[in-house]
User: What shape does this take?
Amino acid sequence: MNLVCLQLDIAWHDKQLNHDKVRALLDRTDVPAGSLVVLPEMFATGFSMDVAAVADEVTHETEGFLHGLAEERNVAILGGVVTRDESGRGRNEAVVAFPDGREHLRYRKIHPFTPGGESDQYAAGQDVVLFEWQGFQIAPFICYDLRFPEIFRIAATRGAQLMAVIANWPAAREEHWNTLLKARAIENQCYVAGVNRCGKDPTLTYPGRTQILGPRGGEIASAGPKECALAARLHLQALLDYRTDLPFLQDARPQFLPR
Assistant: This one.
């Protein structure tokens, strides 16, 4: 499967400009039909606590943008979108748009970032989700989720072979980003794509460092601090062979997973 990760310097609260940035990056990148394209968390607005300002619920412009791109380019696209629930609280979601008429898949961030006030404005998700694309079972996660290995192990026990972590992860904790992505790949014997933003918002600086890791934890591709597209070819049979040769996951004891 061809994987294309877009690292954006997200314009604050400017959906149209960020949509244009995505299009421009894709226009400059070889994106074969059938690829999976992954965008950062809240890619159209930045990581904002102003739910009313960034929610995609009146004209659904960002979800419509993702759907249109998926159809135009015959790819699946995963990106971060904000919606609201019946009470008005935000939902920080990873939405997957498919080119083949399937209904969008949604994953809601299980762990809102409490130190940044996200848990006050956004409702927590309740479950891990998987979707199939090009023969891969893929589990999306969002930013702060990366610190909670138990949900990644749940995804692995359900069959995940690629875990896509979309993020607005700040420069102050860049080393944690690098280390935790590698750990999630090694302990679950899976591909991991960590897709971060770069640049600045009104309060934080972001390092980029988008990366694609193999199931042994090795780096397949990585980005620096600038806006860019990162691409790699993932090989499912190589992952399956590795899990057969070293069947660590078979020795996991599911009774010790959180309930």
About this structure: The radius of gyration is 17 Å. Residues 174-188 form the longest helix (15 residues).
